[in-house]
Amino acid sequence: MKQKFNVTGMTCSACSAHVEKAVNKLDAVRKAEVSLMTNSMTVDYDESALTPDGIIQAVVHAGYGASLPQKAGDTAQAKAQRPEAQMEAERRQMLQDAQQQVAALALLAAAKVSGHAMDQEGDRDLVEDFLREAGDL
Predict the structure, then answer these.
(1) Which helix (H) or strand (E) covers residue 35, if one does?
(2) DSSP labels for 86-131?
(3) Is the distance from CB of 28 to CB of 63 less than 8 angstroms?
């Protein structure tokens, strides 16, 4: 069975790759494809061995939110009924993204203030190295 899901909390291609990998690890999934542009995912899976809720839980466990698409007019009701775990995953992802951005800006500002003359390539390399070493803040 092919099923489309809405995915929330993704901000970059690494996020979408993380979601795709988490869902593709499920035994009953034949193929999962995630689109960052549309914040959606299409999953081809064995419906006798896996439910949509199982797929949603895999996405939530990966730190993002997921839901089945709603019919037109059900959007407000769906948001009101969104699972607490999904909202918490979205909040955590936004906080993590903000922390990384602040850390990168602080590092860049410190390098500039201390007199390190760098070009844009050097700035980007410095920030990427810092984020790679810092991991999850």
Answers:
(1) strand 29-35
(2) HHHHHHHHHHHHHHHHHHHHHHHHHHHHTT----HHHHHHHHHHHH
(3) no
Q: What is the pLDDT of residues 59-71, one digit of tens each?
A: 999 999 999 997 7
Give the pLDDT confidence score for residue 136 in this predicted structure: 44
CB atoms within 10 A of CB 137: 11
Extents of the domains making up the chain? 2-80, 84-134
Residue 1 tokens read as 């069975």
Of 62 and 106, more confident: 62
Cα dihedral 127, 128, 131, 134 sign? negative
% of residues, the chain, pLDDT over 90? 48
Residue type, 53: D
| Whole-prediction pTM | 0.56
Dig out the tokens for 14 from the structure.
């690494």
CA distance 51 to 30: 14
CATH of domain 2-80: 3.30.70.100
Residue 2 pairs with which residues in a beta bridge? 44
